[in-house]
Amino acid sequence: QDYTWEDHGYSLINRLYPDVGQLLDEKFQVVYNLTYNTIAMHCGVDTSVLRRAIWNYVHCVFGIRYDDYDYGEVNQLLERSLKIYIKTVACYPEKTTKRTYTQFWRHFKHSEKVHINLLLLEARMQAALLYALRAVTRYMT
Questions:
Q1: pLDDT at position 1 over 70
Q2: What distance in Å separates the CA atoms of residue 138 and residue 40, rounded to the nearest whole number?
Q3: pLDDT confidence of 107, banded at 50, 70, 90?
Q4: In whole angstroms, what is the distance from residue 14 CA to residue 23 CA?
Q5: Rounded CA gap, 130 and 65, in Å?
Q6: Looking only at Cα atoms, what is the longest distance across the chain?
Q7: Predicted TM-score (pTM) above 0.85
């Protein structure tokens, strides 16, 4: 909560490696904002709330929580099987199986499931960067 990508990580990485912060931020934003505005067979759906819940749940799994986010959304939007899948892929990728993949969102397209994977892997990368950059900040001060 006291060290975020937007407020701290981005600027530090840009100071250490010019332009890398911008490239990483664009990469995170592309995946975070990617949508076809569909869920399963429903078209014209605003998926931003779901995408935010997935991103914040991944960060939460790694001990990063934000004061300005209502974590009740995570429990409302992410069913248990999806949470299990996210935690398995993010924390124990070697234990991910086809069965784990097929157990969540059974009626959804594979492209939607792939998007979930992209979201959780980018959120995981950002969380790891936050921990590393925070350590660098502490070392520098």
A1: no
A2: 45
A3: confident
A4: 10
A5: 12
A6: 52
A7: yes
